[in-house]
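re: ur question from yesterday

yeah so i grabbed the chain u mentioned. its 385 aa long if i counted rite. heres the sequnce exactly as i have it in my notes:
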Amino acid sequence: MSGTHRRIPLVGVAALLVTAPLVAGAGTASAATSGFVPSVFVQTNSGDGNSVRAFARAEDGSLTSEGTFATGGLGSATLNNPTDPLASQGSLVADRAHGELLALNAGSDTLTRFSVHGTSLQREPIISTGGQFPVSVTVSGQNVYVLNAGGDGSVSAFRRTGSGLHAIPGSVRPLGLGGSTPPDFLASPAQIGTTPDGDRLVVSTKTHGTVDVFAIAANGKPSAAPRVTTTGPVPFPFVFDPAGRIVLGDASGVLSTWAFAEDGSLVPVAHAPSNGQVALCWLAEVGGHLYTTNTGSGTVTGYEEAADGTLTLLDADGVTATTDAGPIDLAGTVDGRFLYELNGKAGTAGIYTVAPTGGLTRTATVTGLPVNTAGAPGMQGIVVT
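ran it thru and got these structure tokens back, copy pasting raw so excuse formatting
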């Protein structure tokens, strides 16, 4: 690697997943102390009843099944999806400050809150998301924001109070995407996230080719209309770097860095060379490096970001690791030791050790996860704690 490229930690918008070899366990969850312990949560997104599977995570990354917890809502699928039913990043996230897990029910237009007690989940009151087909959620302090992908698309805002999570009156903001319900998997918006300072709300729109940025008022409401920036053919996943810039993945195979202008529009900083892979759709930071899954190619691409936002491929051919069929969500451990990716078509998860230079070595494969069928509901949404 060039000496001018310094590894710097990034802040992920989406929840992080850690999975490893599953060990059969009891069907009910074990009691645990209140709050998060090393665990993994995977959302089934089943059309006949959404649920979250919980696993205890050992020091060596292995997992023990601790139970399955019904969300009380329904999963669903976008139209024409090949393997990723929600076609989004961030459908299941952790609110670590409040000890909760937030799960979206795309088939019933609701948000489920679970209080977390180790690997045991206690379901809290379910609330409407204020729109159709919710696919991505983000947390910023006392505020929670949901991206509804159905129809025209919309953003909904919620505020946490002593009595729970409540919709902020007058906070629903339409996106004007002119879609359907369920939406087409390429035409539906992909992700929602809040900037690290909590001042802006960001939405990527896939084939609409834009990233929408709303200002957030002191009362938590998004601005009446977003500042819209055209960024590329199919902007999909993003994270924020320590400088507050967006690192954005485009399904065309390009990763790029963007800075915020004062008015909320995005200014290009750097573009990595195309990774030469098909369908870059998920993005995670692990150990100071960035990794994307490429669903159409069955590969993982690694990148390094310099302090000035410049992005370089870890491997010239764009292949840092190969996966099983249909890789979708991926994430890594906070300590940067392991990277995990879900394979929708295979019903597996690949486990990789992460070298200090960013190289990946596959160490194990998890089997027995739900197999996603094209056009149907299936697993999507992952969290590591």
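noticed a couple things. The two ends are 31 Å apart (CA to CA). also The first strand starts at residue 11 and ends at 12.
anyway ttyl
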